[in-house]
């Protein structure tokens, strides 16, 4: 069994077989414009009728009182308060990324076109537009510095070449320098979600086929199949999926009053649960609940290729403004999970947000495990044989 | 938290509905962690510095409890017993054969019950047979367990029939059953080894840091542990006259486990070894090692004396159980602190970068 | 597993189709194949406006079997473009909330708990008390003899979450009855 | 807003309170706009802004005043705009004396009543010569208006004298508004900002640069505010200051400019347009006061026939309202049934009503979707007030605290009240949600949007429309046979509304009545399509003139829903905006005096010289055929008198008011006073607090001393209350929802690490906050987002308190209410209370329970030596401020209102009696 068959390679179609596949869908979560309103959390719970995930107590993590992703919380907004020193470090670590020979953009370009030119893109983009609004502007330099390895046609998608947005926000509007003074303080907010990995650990280790790769390239649990073995929980390198261990789906209250009789009951206790990227809505060509609700288009949804382009343009734009702390997470098809369906733009190291810095799908090591286990099996059998031959003489 | 002089006047609060929320340590800000909480035993490696999200875990532990740890032990015991039963069958050691077969079936049966009981939806245990997934050790293990149990079951049935003087109401099936004795014994014996080791893959094919770090060697540890456990069981249950192969099996297992465990720990990221060496898992593994050495020595030196053999056998079985519990719970401990996830990952990332591989990071500048 | 057909056994499907490793089409269940969004099967969709703040975001209300099954942002709205805040996103729960009251309740003077009351009776009782309070609080003129023609026995607070039409009727009725102490959140 | 080049969000936490509205800020920012957030706390808005300036709560006027000073002294104002579109060149009466001269007071202050005589603030008019005020006649109605608060003027502004105003186009005359403004704000320097607001000079310069660089022909700056401004004793003046700045910079009536009010309730705008307010009738017509005994008096109090603009037709609007309500019973002979309307003779706001309740003067109280036990200031007093009622009707979705205080309120816990002793009857009536009834909401930009009913209300729940319709039916039935004249208004009331299939009154029929119709003539029965069709002869009727046109041609325009994607950015085919579906008010100002757009980039409406009409992207807010250069005779009055460059068509002189000759109760120019409770002395003037603020000195509404007064150290910290994204006001619509409750489950406070250190407060542990009114317990969030400010040489610690929680048992999450800490002090203009600041102490641990809680509060009061007089002085330093005979203007008869506020001596005895 070769690696290639055990775990899909970068070509996404490798672990899928569909008569009529659709282009792969995904999220782009731009945390630089997240306002931490948690509309995504609520919209997600309401649509999926997930139970409340809380003891109704302050958790002691800024405004975050749901803790993290889990069986009941499929979108989770993280809140991180940082001092100036930490911002400098983030900026530095981001610069270090740029300086590596990795997919990268060039150094901040000198201030581009005058701001008054305005920007032709963005404003009227509807909420479900893949590209979202306001993010499609990038400076002229981005075309030449588009990532070489990421597989995005670097030139297209850059419909708007005005650098007005970048220049104005960074320095003074009239062609000032893009050098940023570091604020004393910042409050990071970021909406986390299932990554819908190209190589999905949960999917690989699921014994029943409850987890499957959909025709949209997402990873979904089938509630009628899962028997709650829990293997997937440990299989996920991001700690996303979890077994729901209590009850039905209507939201609980502390008062013990019986729920409204008409509340739909779906018995989903005891099975693994996670974001489905709203598989049901996607089938009807609707936007997932979280992306639909997001007030600032921090959560964008669309074909993954488009998401990737948006993400790359946005990070280039931020770098032009001197905000070198910006970086993408999950955009690289060569990473340990083959790139994620949900791409994030982060403003600090991943572990600050509770994300692993170098996740790796556990099944990547499966061939080796098979070889070693095979050797152990043979060894044990040989030992057994020896016991009754050599050992017998004693 | 009670600092007000008035607190003592408060009536006891109504207990709030408590829901177990896993992985929630008391937090206090996005803190830079300077390592452990001070109560831990001596750290093996310098404590790393990194910023976590309020100290919350990154990966999640599977929702498995001691039932699964028990199964790990029983599966090994069962697989090893089947091998010894096959040997006993082929070399005509009737007690070894009989006890091995019965042990194999009983352990597999109990283990299966433990497995099913641990499911979130036990009534759906048959879904395990729904698909055949090479990427899923649990799927492969289910197939192994099912085939192994069937074969071990037939072999055990023959044994029971024989023990009851062929009084089982088998009717015309008896000849068929007895004809199947050889093929099923061989099959059970051969499947006994994967039965004893696949659980290593089950654990290490996860993102649980300590388990995954073990993936190169855990199979050897578990195979050895299964050998010494089943050898021990036979020493305990069978007359010494027939248990020489079992003693050999056990002693080799002890040696194998000692070596494999050492090698494994050396190959792991040092930080991820920590959960195996502290707390309860650490104690268990320590005792496991002591018991296995004692049992091994007992088998080697006093295996021909019945009571020494029995005591050594029991020690070996206990050692195996402790090994499985130690590894199991050590792994579960390793998800509680994000450092076990983050630091090894950062280390390997740095290592790759140092080696000039810079194009495979999940974090990119564009 | 109830309608088990050997050909539909995923292991066989793995072999029959190209999904050899059993990770996509081969393991999809009938149930999953048939999933649809509940918004797609709603009996009707009604356009509405979010009841929380004054931004006035558009909402689409999905109704099935005379129950609200989903409320989400209305992408047609030029105000909100389909987006909603957490409160707006929770408005389905506001409608179907487990804690919502749907019975008229009455607390008698000195009573320690509620008792149920017929709505018709309640409105009649309120009308009687309204008339009585109006009478008791009536002022014909101020101290200088200038006509006031009003009652100070009745007051009201609220309106910023009510409809314009409702506020109109409230103001109209209270004014005609001579009640002037009418206030709402606009001043709070 | 998306068109702005710079957005200053001040006094609002926009991203948290209006996340969806904030998308336009995000979009403007993506286009390159600079976003600056000025707020005491670093909030989620600050997190995505370009810069956050921490400010001491309540010092906004100093910051804005300094910006005005910066603009004026550096000649950065928009000359063409200011000269033509504002009253900068107008001369003010020579009796006027500024706060500069009187160290904090304006001329005309009456220390006895705590109110101003408005006379000396008037324009100077030509006909009567210098030194005379305009038109005494017009001032008659002022007294009651002052009592009721300036909000009466609504969008109309106040009438000013007619006649030719004296202008000096060179702006050099010392009594021009421009020069007065210059002198008035000279004191507001960057150093004063640092001293008062705690904002560093460099930060102020950044703000000033951002605002001024992004204003002018080509660029616009937008201000956004919310309750952070209104809920102060200076609320209305905060907004005035921003208006002055925006007028000087030419940012009013233009795309991407203006001052945006961000309001917290679905139709809080609608509930003032069609008001459930004591002092207003629909369409901002004032509630008749006792002095306006005849209809003519009433109408003259609203307008002069010769004033410019649309308010000149107030008579027609009033007649139409009366015709709508009393139909055929309203005739020219009986003054259109004007006498059917009750008269007000002072403020009858919710806090005055509360005082009346406490004196057992109110029998019955309706709470309609409102939770004053949690949401109003001094929650304890609110609950105590309700316990004095005979009956209470609570209409809500959930069992709110205001419906259950008699069994689980804090006063029951403390033993102050005993359930069995409370004789209040309580009716809980379940209400219908927004999807269970049809009707319209008016959102913050005056857009009226229709909601269609989706389902029937569950159980016994019903809409307010149905409830009040039925209640009205039954009340009318009970008085049907009465011959008491006081019942005539009820008997003659038009109260026949068609019912829908479900038996509910048809909301659309009510909307049609609001819109109005022709009663006689060839078009009888047809809906009106514009308020210009309204007549004062009884041939038309319409319930709210500003809404006329919403039902034009019998079509419910509020229900128009052409998708936004199919329209331009103005989206005029989505719902309907009053007046006349106009999206940007005063948009004539978006073109220069000659009618050309100020710039291509900021083009909105303009004069089309070919077609001789105003045209553009928006519906022009101006007489369509009025040429830019025309100068009609101002004596004509009404819209006809508007000159071609009078864009502010609702103001009596057609100009934007830099100086408010009328309409404000506490000064024609904004002036900084300290909040009711402040840790510092007013750095700007000797006068400490707003001298015209409305106070309620009571034993249970005590104030902490301010500045250096003894006892200040007992309550050394400031608190400010606010909302969170996850909850809605008093929680009636959020704390019962598990999904929202889990997001912010517990009452907490936000404090700086420095304060935590100082007081030994443990992160996420408990703390008790004590104010002169109450003590509450909260969880502690220690965060760098709170910054201690250095003000007046002192370190000021601010404590942030969300106010969504209340003590009860029914909600999913409960907690102590922050509003219990607040005292009641009101803004004199709009009677909105100060919610934003107060003095307190904070201590570790939970609060005591039961009676011990009150004991703790009293112990603090004793230590601070509080009396009901503390902080209640009107004039801080009479010697410095009242350098002339304070009563000199008294004989003029032009007295601005005698409020229900405290007067020394008198209320003190009342107070005794209360106890």
UniProtKB/TrEMBL annotation, chain A:
Residues 25-55, 185-216, 217-246 form the 4Fe-4S ferredoxin-type domain. Pfam families: Fer4_11. The keyword Iron applies. InterPro entries: 4Fe4S_Fe-S-bd, 4Fe4S_Fe_S_CS, FDH_Electron_Transfer_Unit. It is found in: Cell envelope. Coiled coil: none annotated. GO terms for molecular function: 4 iron, 4 sulfur cluster binding; metal ion binding. PROSITE patterns: 4FE4S_FER_1, 4FE4S_FER_2. Keywords: 4Fe-4S, Iron, Iron-sulfur, Membrane, Metal-binding, Repeat, Transmembrane, Transmembrane helix. The chain crosses the membrane at residues 373-391. GO terms for cellular component: cell envelope. This is 4Fe-4S dicluster domain-containing protein.
Automatic annotation (TrEMBL), chain C:
Signal peptide: none annotated. One of its GO terms (cellular component) is cell envelope. Gene3D superfamilies: 3.40.50.740, ADC-like domains. Coiled coil: none annotated. GO terms for molecular function: 4 iron, 4 sulfur cluster binding; electron transfer activity; molybdenum ion binding; oxidoreductase activity. InterPro entries: Mopterin_OxRdtase_4Fe-4S_dom. Pfam families: Molybdop_Fe4S4 (PF04879). It is found in: Cell envelope. Keywords: 4Fe-4S, Iron, Iron-sulfur, Metal-binding, Oxidoreductase. Residues 43-99 form the 4Fe-4S Mo/W bis-MGD-type domain. Transmembrane segments: none annotated. It comes from the Bacteria. Its cofactor is [4Fe-4S] cluster. GO terms for biological process: anaerobic respiration. Belongs to the prokaryotic molybdopterin-containing oxidoreductase family. This is Dehydrogenase. The lineage of its organism: Bacteria, Bacillati, Actinomycetota, Actinomycetes, Micrococcales.
């Amino acid at each position: 069994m070769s690696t290639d068959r055990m775990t899909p390679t970068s070509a996404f179609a490798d672990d899928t077989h569909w008569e009529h596949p659709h282009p792969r869908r995904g999220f782009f979560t731009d945390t630089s414009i997240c306002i931490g309103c948690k509309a995504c959390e609520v919209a997600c719970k309401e649509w999926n009728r997930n139970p409340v995930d809380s003891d109704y107590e302050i958790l002691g993590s800024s405004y975050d009182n749901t803790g993290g992703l889990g069986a009941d919380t499929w979108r989770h907004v993280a809140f991180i308060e940082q001092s100036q020193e930490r911002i400098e470090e983030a900026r530095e670590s981001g610069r270090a990324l740029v300086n590596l020979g990795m997919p990268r953009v060039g150094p901040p370009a000198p201030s581009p076109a005058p701001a008054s030119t305005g920007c032709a893109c963005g404003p009227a983009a509807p909420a479900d537009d893949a590209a979202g609004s306001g993010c499609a502007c990038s400076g002229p330099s981005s075309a030449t510095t588009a990532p070489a390895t990421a597989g995005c046609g670097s030139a297209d998608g850059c419909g708007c070449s005005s650098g007005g947005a970048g220049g104005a926000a960074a320095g003074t509007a009239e062609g000032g320098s893009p050098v940023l003074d570091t604020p004393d303080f910042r409050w990071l907010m970021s909406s986390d979600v299932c990554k819908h990995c190209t190589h999905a650990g949960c999917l690989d280790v699921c014994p029943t086929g409850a987890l499957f790769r959909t025709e949209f390239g997402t990873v979904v649990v089938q509630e009628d199949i899962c028997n709650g073995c829990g293997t997937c929980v440990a299989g996920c390198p991001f700690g996303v999926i979890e077994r729901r261990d209590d009850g039905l789906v209507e939201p609980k209250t502390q008062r013990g009053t019986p729920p409204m009789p008409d509340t739909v009951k779906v018995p989903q206790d005891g099975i693994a649960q996670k974001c489905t990227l709203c598989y049901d809505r996607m089938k009807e060509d609707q936007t997932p609940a979280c992306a639909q609700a997001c007030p600032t288009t921090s959560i964008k949804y669309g074909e993954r290729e488009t998401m990737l382009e948006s993400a790359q343009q946005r990070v280039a734009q931020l770098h032009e403004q001197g905000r070198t702390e910006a970086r993408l997470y999950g955009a690289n098809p060569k990473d340990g999970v083959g790139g994620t369906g949900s791409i994030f733009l982060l403003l600090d190291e991943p572990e600050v947000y509770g994300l692993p810095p170098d996740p790796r799908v556990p099944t990547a090591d499966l061939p080796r495990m098979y070889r070693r286990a095979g050797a152990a099996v043979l060894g044990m059998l040989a030992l057994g044989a020896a016991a009754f031959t050599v050992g017998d003489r004693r | 938290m009670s600092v007000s002089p008035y607190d003592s006047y408060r009536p006891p609060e109504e207990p709030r509905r408590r829901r177990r929320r896993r992985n929630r340590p008391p937090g206090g800000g996005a803190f830079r962690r300077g390592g452990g909480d001070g109560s831990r035993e001596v750290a093996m490696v310098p404590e790393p510095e990194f910023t976590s999200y309020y100290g919350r875990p990154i990966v999640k532990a599977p929702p498995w409890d001691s039932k699964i740890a028990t199964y790990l032990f029983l599966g090994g015991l069962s697989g090893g017993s089947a091998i010894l039963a096959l040997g006993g069958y082929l070399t005509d050691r009737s007690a070894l054969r009989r006890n091995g077969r019965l042990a194999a079936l009983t352990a597999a049966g109990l283990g299966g019950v433990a497995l099913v009981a641990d499911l979130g939806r036990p009534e759906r245990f048959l879904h395990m047979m729904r698909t055949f997934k090479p990427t899923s050790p649990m799927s492969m293990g289910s197939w192994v367990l099912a085939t192994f149990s069937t074969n071990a079951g037939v072999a055990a049935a023959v044994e029971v029939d024989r023990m009851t003087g062929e009084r089982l109401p088998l009717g015309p099936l008896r000849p068929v059953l007895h004809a199947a004795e050889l093929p099923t014994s061989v099959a059970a014996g051969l499947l006994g080894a994967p039965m004893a080791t696949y659980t290593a893959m089950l654990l290490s094919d996860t993102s649980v840091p300590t388990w995954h770090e073990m993936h190169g060697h855990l199979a050897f540890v578990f195979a050895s542990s299964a050998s010494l456990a089943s050898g021990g069981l036979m020493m305990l249950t069978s007359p010494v006259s027939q248990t020489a192969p079992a003693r050999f099996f056990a002693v080799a297992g002890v040696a194998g486990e000692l070596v494999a465990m050492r090698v494994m720990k050396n190959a792991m990221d040092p930080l991820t070894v920590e959960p195996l060496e502290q707390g309860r898992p650490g104690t268990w593994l320590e005792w496991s090692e002591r018991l296995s050495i004692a049992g091994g020595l007992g088998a080697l030196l006093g295996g021909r004396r019945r009571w020494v053999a029995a005591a050594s056998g029991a020690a070996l079985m206990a050692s195996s159980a402790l090994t499985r519990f130690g590894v199991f719970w050590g792994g579960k401990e390793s998800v509680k602190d994000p450092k076990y996830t983050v630091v090894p990952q950062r280390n390997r990332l740095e290592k790759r970068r140092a080696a000039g591989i810079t194009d495979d990071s999940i974090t990119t500048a564009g | 597993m109830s309608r088990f057909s050997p050909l539909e056994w995923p292991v066989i499907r793995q072999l029959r189709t190209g999904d050899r490793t059993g990770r996509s089409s081969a393991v999809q269940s009938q149930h999953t194949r048939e999933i649809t969004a509940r918004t797609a099967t709603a009996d009707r969709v009604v356009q509405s406006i979010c009841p929380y703040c004054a931004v006035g975001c558009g909402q689409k209300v999905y109704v099935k079997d005379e129950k609200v099954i989903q409320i989400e942002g209305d992408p047609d709205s030029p105000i909100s473009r389909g987006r909603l805040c957490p409160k707006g996103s929770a408005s389905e729960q506001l409608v179907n909330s487990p804690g919502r009251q749907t019975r008229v309740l009455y607390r008698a003077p000195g009573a320690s708990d509620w008792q149920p009351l017929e709505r018709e009776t309640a409105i009649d009782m309120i009308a009687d008390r309204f008339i009585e309070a109006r009478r008791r609080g009536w002022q014909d003129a101020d101290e200088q003899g200038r006509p006031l023609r009003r009652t100070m026995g009745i007051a009201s607070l609220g309106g910023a979450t009510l409809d314009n039409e409702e506020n109109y009727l409230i103001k109209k009725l209270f004014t005609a009855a001579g009640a002037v102490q009418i206030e709402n959140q606009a001043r709070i | 807003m998306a068109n702005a080049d710079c957005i200053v969000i001040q006094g609002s936490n926009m991203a948290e309170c209006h996340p969806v509205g904030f998308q336009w800020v995000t979009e403007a920012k993506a286009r390159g706009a600079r976003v600056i957030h000025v707020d005491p706390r670093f909030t989620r808005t600050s997190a995505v802004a370009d810069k956050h300036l921490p400010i001491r709560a309540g010092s906004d006027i100093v910051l804005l005043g300094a910006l005005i000073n910066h603009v004026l002294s550096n000649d950065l104002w928009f000359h063409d705009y200011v000269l033509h579109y504002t009253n900068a060149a107008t001369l003010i009466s020579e009796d006027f004396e500024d706060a500069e001269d009187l160290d904090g007071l304006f001329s005309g202050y009456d220390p006895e009543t705590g109110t101003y005589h408005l006379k000396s603030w008037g324009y100077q008019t030509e006909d009567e010569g210098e030194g005379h005020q305009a038109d005494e006649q017009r001032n008659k109605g002022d007294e009651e208006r002052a009592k009721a608060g300036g909000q009466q003027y609504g969008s109309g502004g106040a009438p000013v004298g007619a006649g030719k105003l004296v202008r000096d186009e060179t702006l050099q005359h010392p009594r021009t508004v421009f020069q007065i403004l210059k002198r008035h704000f000279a004191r507001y320097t960057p150093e004063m900002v640092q001293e008062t607001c705690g904002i560093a000079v460099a930060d102020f310069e950044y703000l000033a640069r951002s605002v001024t660089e992004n204003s002018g022909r080509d660029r616009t700056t937008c201000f956004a505010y919310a309750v952070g401004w209104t809920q102060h004793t200076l609320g209305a003046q905060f907004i005035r200051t921003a208006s002055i700045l925006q007028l000087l910079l030419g940012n009013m009536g233009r795309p991407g400019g203006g001052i945006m009010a961000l309001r917290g309730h679905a139709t809080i705008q609608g509930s003032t347009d069609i008001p459930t307010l004591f002092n207003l009738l629909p369409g901002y017509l004032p509630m008749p006061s006792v002095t306006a005994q005849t209809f003519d008096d009433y109408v003259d109090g609203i307008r002069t026939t010769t004033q410019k603009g649309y308010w000149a037709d107030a008579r027609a609007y009033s007649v139409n309202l009366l015709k709508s309500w009393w139909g055929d019973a309203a005739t020219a002979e009986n003054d259109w049934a004007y006498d059917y309307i009750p008269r007000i003779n002072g403020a009858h706001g919710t806090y005055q009503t509360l005082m009346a309740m406490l004196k057992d003067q109110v029998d019955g109280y309706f709470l309609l979707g409102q939770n004053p036990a949690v949401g109003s200031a001094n929650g304890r007093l609110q609950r105590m007030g309700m316990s004095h009622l005979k009956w209470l009707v609570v209409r809500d979705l959930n069992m709110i605290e205001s419906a259950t205080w008699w069994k689980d309120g804090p006063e029951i816990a403390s033993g102050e009240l005993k359930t069995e002793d409370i004789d209040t009857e309580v009716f809980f009536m379940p209400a219908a949600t927004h999807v269970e009834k049809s009707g319209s909401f008016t959102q913050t930009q005056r857009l009226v949007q229709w909601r269609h009913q989706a389902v029937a209300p569950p159980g016994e729940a019903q809409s307010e429309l149905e409830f009040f319709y039925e209640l009205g039916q039954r009340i009318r039935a009970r008085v049907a046979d009465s011959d008491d004249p006081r019942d005539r208004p009820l008997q003659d009331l038009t109260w026949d509304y068609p019912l829908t299939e479900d038996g509910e009154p048809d909301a659309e029929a009510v909307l049609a009545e609001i819109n109005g119709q022709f009663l006689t003539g060839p078009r009888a029965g047809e809906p009106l399509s514009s308020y210009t069709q309204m007549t004062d002869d009884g041939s038309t009727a319409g319930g709210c003139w500003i809404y006329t046109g919403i039902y034009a041609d019998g079509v419910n325009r509020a229900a128009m829903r052409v998708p936004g994607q199919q329209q331009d950015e103005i989206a005029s085919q989505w719902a309907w905006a009053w007046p006349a579906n106009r999206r940007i008010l005063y948009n004539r100002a978006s073109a220069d005096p000659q009618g050309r757009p100020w710039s291509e980039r900021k083009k909105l409406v303009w004069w089309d010289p070919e077609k001789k009409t105003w045209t553009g992207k928006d519906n022009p807010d101006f007489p369509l055929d009025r040429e830019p250069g025309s100068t009609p005779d101002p004596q004509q009055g009404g819209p006809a008198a508007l000159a071609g460059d009078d864009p502010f068509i609702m103001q009596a002189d057609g100009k934007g008011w830099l100086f408010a000759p009328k309409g404000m109760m506490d000064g024609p120019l904004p002036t900084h006073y300290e909040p009711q409770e402040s840790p510092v002395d007013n750095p700007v003037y000797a006068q400490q607090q707003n001298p015209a603020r409305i106070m309620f000195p009571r034993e249970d509404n005590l104030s902490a001393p301010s500045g250096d007064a003894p006892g200040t150290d007992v309550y050394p910290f400031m608190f400010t209350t606010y909302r969170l994204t996850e909850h809605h006001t008093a929680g009636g619509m959020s704390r019962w929802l598990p999904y929202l409750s889990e997001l912010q489950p517990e009452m907490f406070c936000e404090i700086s690490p420095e304060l935590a250190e100082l007081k030994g407060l443990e992160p996420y542990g408990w703390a008790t906050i004590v104010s002169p009114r109450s003590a509450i317990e909260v969880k502690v969030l220690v965060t760098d987002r709170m910054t201690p400010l250095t003000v007046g040489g002192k370190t000021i610690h601010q404590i942030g308190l969300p106010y969504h929680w209340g003590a009860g048992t029914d909600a999913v999450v409960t907690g102590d209410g922050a509003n219990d800490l607040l005292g009641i002090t009101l803004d004199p203009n709009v009677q909105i209370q100060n919610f934003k600041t107060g003095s307190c102490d904070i201590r570790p641990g939970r609060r005591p329970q039961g009676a011990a809680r009150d004991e703790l509060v009293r112990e603090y009061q004793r230590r601070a030596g509080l009396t009901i007089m503390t902080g209640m002085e009107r004039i801080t330093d009479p010697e410095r401020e009242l350098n002339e005979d304070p009563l000199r203007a008294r004989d003029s008869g032009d007295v601005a209102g005698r409020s229900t506020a405290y007067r020394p001596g008198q209320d003190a005895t009342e107070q005794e009696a209360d106890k």
